[in-house]
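pipeline/complex-builder :: batch 7 item 3
reading input block
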Amino acid sequence: MKKRLLSITLTATMAAGLVACGSNSGSGTAATAAQEDSTTAAAKESQAESKEEASGEKKTLTITFKDDGQGENHPWYVWLRESYEAWDMKDQVELELAPITGSESDYYTKVALQLADANTCPDIVFEDTFQLPSDVSAGYLTNLDAYVADYEAWNNGTYYESLKAGSTAADGSVYGIPFCTDTRGIWYNKEIFKQAGLPEEWQPETWQDILDACAAIKEKVPEVIPFWCNSGVATGEATSMQTYEMLLYGTGEQLLDADGKWIVKSQAIIDTLQFISDIYTNGYGPSLSLVLNGQATNTARREYLPQQKLAIHMDGAWISANWIDTGAAPWPEYQEIMGFAAMPTQNGGGTVTMSGGWTLSIPEHSAMKDEAFSFIQQMMEPPAYTKSVIAQGNIVTRSDAAEDEEYLSQPYKAEGTALLDGAYFRPQNEQYSVVTTNIQTMVEAVASGSTPEDAMNQYAMDVTRIVGEDNIVEK
Amino acid sequence: MTKNQGYGFREEMRKSLLLIPAVLVLLFFFIIPIVLTIYYSFTNLALSGSNAKNLQFIGLENYKRMLTDPSTVISIENTLIFLAGSLAGQTILGFLIAYLMKQKAKGFRSVAGPCFLAGWVMPEIVVALCFMAFFKENGTLNVLTGFFGAKQVSWLYEHPMLSVVIANVWHGTAFSMLNFQSALDNVSGDMEEAARVDGANRFQVLLRIIIPSIKDTIATNVMLNTLSTLGVYGLIYAMTGGGPANKTTTLPIYMYNQGLKGMQLGFGTAIGMMILFVGTICSLIYARLLRTKEEG
């Protein structure tokens, strides 16, 4: 009898186990896996929290930011540690650095997963300005209006007005303190240009000028890669902004038309994709194995440029920060060798740049908003703040920091900052953060051999699905 | 009689009571998540944006969008190619290895077996890293082919599907081998011997005696491999990320891209249901094949 009972129970348990195992292959969704992941993390965290509260120890302020793989020496780590040392609340509050090491797009997904739940939510999060409108719409971020009302530097004109717009949502409220902005352009290697018989001080007037330079380099200096632009899904926002939008906005068209509708089909999109296609079909670009993986931005900035294996690189003005003494790839001669030119518009007559930036935001679920804002104020205090922006190679958001001698004497700083006048910003549209992933797919498709028309048709279909048929337009 | 009935009822109760823990575990970890997944696939659930705050039932909208999207068709095609390639490779190789090892000495089997098993035991991500190193431009494969004067090939970008299929075959062959080994051990030696005596050659014995005797194992093995191959995500994601462009975007990768990267969880779960659907169809086909075989 007992034996029978035992065998029944065992069989039942086994059967349940088998069925549960089987589900992995059939219906297990990534969403559930991710949820499970965050639940365990949450459980651990809340355990840790309650332990600390019970023993009456310091409270912990958690900060989430992006680590591109450089680790402890990354300017953001240094900045956070130094700001904490100078903070007057450091005796009451412990600082916990919670970096996310991952590719561009994984960062935003992981942040969104963290912000959605009170248990996993950090107290301060580094938000890219393009992701901000979407996270505000989701109710993930704290409205900082009440906080900035008492923040003197915010109200006395120390922060540039034009940059406050990047952290202000559609409802007119402030959801983050902008700490850097940036511009984009074309880096070129003067020595390679010389060998190719091109001018050492170079400013292309049209897209064709760039293609002509590539052709000359390919012919005369065949061992180097003529042109590199971020072209893959894995390089995320860098592909959308540093490549696609820099080109598209140079045609005179933008992502949205004047009525705020997404342009999904147009000659300008075709022209933009055709330029990318020209780069790859003519053999001007790097091999796909180099450019389509998640490490591609680092490969170009930290290997191919310093090793002088790459002639022209379309990227951010800040990437020279990699080559300074404390950077990820020190390169003492970079100032003599590298030139920085503005990106020309398609048919000449002007230049174009896209501008982005990052903000410090406080998640809605944070339990320590006052402490968090106090720490943000501390982080934004020069000279530690200025030092950090210099190390990032970015542009400051405070006028007092902009007057700093050391900051002003940074190489390429004047060129980069000059571009800021008339810079375009990405649409302050909550759907941009999803549409941008489709831009990346479109660019990668063209880079790996699709025709511009096919890639655009797929883009049109994807964007229509996301924003709805009423919000698109074809030109 | 009444006594017996009472006893029977109590017995039933006791049995049910003992089943409760198992049922509860099933309910919480299997049935509720599945029901939730089905429900979410009919909603606008999102990770960010205003939909994240405003969960709504949107009926068949996700499914309509999915079925009108050419990416879905491409993903299904890719999934089927990946599936067919993996199954063919794993089954044939697995059978061959098991068959070749059958008549060998025990010592040889105990050395060779674990070597094949190593591929199966290795976590998916490690397999992916190994094969990335193998297929890289200056990786092992190119060094080997270069030795014979062949041109360097960027395998992961020029033949991405072939590369991931090979990696998956390497990873999964040992499982098939194990199945076939135990089946082959049960094939009666008398029959083989009788066939030999009748003048059948080795190939005829294989085709007429051995394969028919293990056909049920073949079917079961194919079905199990189908279910596990349909869910392969980490291997492909690590090796090619679904690319270049969408050349290796199978349904699980498509689901991740839309659901988590694109932050449209509702749409992502609808794609998850599609994977379940493809899996169910395959299982039904195999079940049908198995049954007709038995009847025949």
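note: Chain A touches chain B through 62 residues (CB under 8 Å).
queue -> next item
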